[in-house]
Specification:
There is one protein chain. By secondary structure, the chain is an all-beta fold. The chain has no helices and five strands. A hairpin with a 7-residue loop joins strand 2 and strand 3. The chain has a five-stranded mixed beta sheet with strand order 1-4-3-2-5, with no helix packed on it. It is elongated, with a radius of gyration of 14 Å.
């Protein structure tokens, strides 16, 4: 697994940009943000279809030697 796509709410924390290293949860490893883009998802949430905007983050696991003081926690 080289890259992970993580879908977040629309307008997700603008500080999370490509190049940022983040740790989504204390129990998870660090990830480098490779790309950030707005996406629209369509899903069937009941009797009707719904279309909503989201933020898509493409992530890659950070090797221990890559990590440093630049890690930010997820808000």
């Amino acid at each position: 697994m080289d890259e992970i796509v993580w879908i977040r709410p629309a307008g997700y924390d603008p500080a999370v940009q490509p190049g940022t290293i983040l740790r989504p949860d204390a129990g998870l490893p660090e990830f480098r943000v490779l790309a950030r883009r707005p996406v629209v998802m369509m899903f069937h949430a009941g009797p009707t279809w719904d279309i909503r905007p989201f933020t898509e983050l493409t992530l890659r696991l950070v090797e221990p030697e890559e990590a440093g003081d630049q890690t930010i926690p997820v808000r």
